[in-house]
């Protein structure tokens, strides 16, 4: 009988704008609780749909890496697709000029647990903050074994999008504001926005840096494992508006980083985490992109790889080659049984390589301290 009552109420919501407060069960077992929704009661169904997005997908053999697990780049692409859907939906939730949300930055993403072929990936996205011209999206990835029903969290990521006008993709539009249930949420979001904005500015100094090939490099050096991939951007890589999906770029970046890690270790390798990915400029259809990766730092059991993406608009003589994206990937070496192996230590040769090594060591120590801080029990 209760299910029938809920079904009638849901049907009423589909016919008219109603608040999610109407879904509150009228029973003494949970008085005053929102058992069906955690959003504010004043938000309508359309508000919730513009802020929440869940997409399932079964993992197939062509999604596998060499080790047999789901390719890290495939997961990054799914994360970006979910973020693009929800941010584009939100940015078009009010009357005005139509737009599409473009990926500007991905915060550090940790691969918490491997995902296997045959499992179902549940990618959930939620808008957590909006500034005047950007949207912050929190994405979680759960894997489900549909034979046993077991579920586990595999990935968490934070992405930033900007709305670009459909009439002129170089024009950034304003973002509709969201309603926060607590004032602290908006203040915390503003701090995250300012922090990522500062970090994006700091990465631009590397834009002139390029990866140069070296003849007959010695093993365990930067030159020995550095790798590049050249890709012609086609229609299947792009949105309907002619520029590359952020997820496509991230997958290519992960592939190159994986090649660098495998060449250095000569073992099975897996993505452990991705530091902030910054998208400096759009990549249009017809461009030739060069994705270059090089080892920057190694600890006992992990290695950091810097990946740079350069775009060359070969059909447009008016524009020169430019830096489109950059990021740091962290990989670990695994045995055939899936156990962690020691990583051969990197031998930096030039002054620039030694400088990048020390910078990578600083990032490693800083992140290790953060993880240990989170692991300490609260008093």
From TrEMBL:
As recorded in UniProt, its EC number(s) are 3.1.2.2
- List the CDD domains: BFIT_BACH
Q: Which PROSITE patterns match?
A: HOTDOG_ACOT
Q: Which UniProt keywords apply?
A: Cytoplasm, Hydrolase, Lipid metabolism, Repeat, Serine esterase
Q: What is any one of the record's Gene Ontology cellular component terms?
A: cytosol
Bias regions of kind Basic and acidic residues — which residues? 352-362
SUPFAM superfamilies, sorted: Thioesterase/thiol ester dehydrase-isomerase
Where is the HotDog ACOT-type domain positioned along the sequence? 49-167, 223-337
Top-level EC class: hydrolase
According to its UniProt entry, one GO biological process term is: fatty acid catabolic process
Subcellular location(s) of the protein: Cytoplasm
Annotated segments matching region Disordered: 348-379
Stored Pfam families: 4HBT
Offer an example of a GO molecular function term for this protein. carboxylic ester hydrolase activity
What residues sit in the active site? Answer: 65, 254
Q: In terms of domain of life, where is this protein from?
A: Eukaryota
Protein name stated in the entry: palmitoyl-CoA hydrolase
């Amino acid at each position: 009988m209760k299910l029938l009552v809920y079904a009638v109420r849901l049907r009423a919501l589909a016919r008219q704008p109603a608040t999610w407060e109407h879904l509150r069960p009228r029973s003494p077992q949970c008085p005053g609780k929102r058992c069906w929704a955690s959003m504010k009661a004043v938000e309508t169904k359309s508000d919730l749909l513009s802020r929440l997005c869940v997409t399932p997908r079964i993992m197939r053999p062509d999604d596998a890496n060499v080790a047999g697990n789901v390719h890290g780049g495939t997961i990054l692409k799914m994360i970006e697709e979910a973020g693009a859907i929800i941010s584009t939906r939100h940015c078009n939730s009010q009357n005005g000029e139509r737009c599409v949300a473009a990926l500007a930055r991905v915060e550090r993403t940790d691969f918490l647990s491997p995902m296997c072929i045959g499992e179902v990936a549940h990618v959930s996205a939620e808008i957590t903050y909006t500034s005047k011209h950007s949207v912050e999206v929190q994405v979680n990835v759960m894997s489900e074994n549909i034979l046993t029903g077991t579920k586990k969290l595999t990935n968490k990521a934070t992405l930033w999008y900007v709305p670009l006008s459909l009439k002129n993709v170089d024009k950034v539009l304003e973002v509709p504001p969201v309603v926060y249930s607590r004032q602290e949420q908006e203040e915390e979001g503003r701090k995250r926005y300012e922090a990522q904005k500062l970090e994006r500015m700091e990465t631009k100094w590397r834009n002139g840096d390029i990866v140069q090939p070296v003849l007959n490099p010695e093993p365990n050096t930067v030159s020995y494992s550095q790798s590049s991939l050249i890709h012609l951007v086609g229609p299947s890589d792009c949105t309907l508006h002619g520029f590359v999906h952020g997820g496509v770029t991230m997958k290519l970046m992960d592939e190159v980083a994986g090649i660098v890690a495998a060449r250095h270790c000569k073992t099975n390798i897996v993505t452990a985490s991705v530091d902030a990915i910054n998208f400096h400029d759009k990549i249009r259809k017809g461009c030739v992109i060069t994705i270059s990766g090089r080892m920057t730092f190694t600890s006992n059991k992990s290695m950091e790889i810097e990946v740079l993406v350069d775009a060359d608009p070969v059909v447009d003589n008016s524009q020169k080659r430019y830096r489109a994206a950059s990021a740091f990937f962290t990989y670990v070496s695994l045995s055939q049984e899936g156990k962690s192996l020691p990583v051969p230590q990197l031998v930096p040769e030039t002054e620039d390589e030694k400088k990048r090594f020390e910078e990578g060591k600083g990032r490693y120590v800083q992140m290790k301290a953060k993880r240990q801080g989170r692991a300490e029990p609260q008093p």
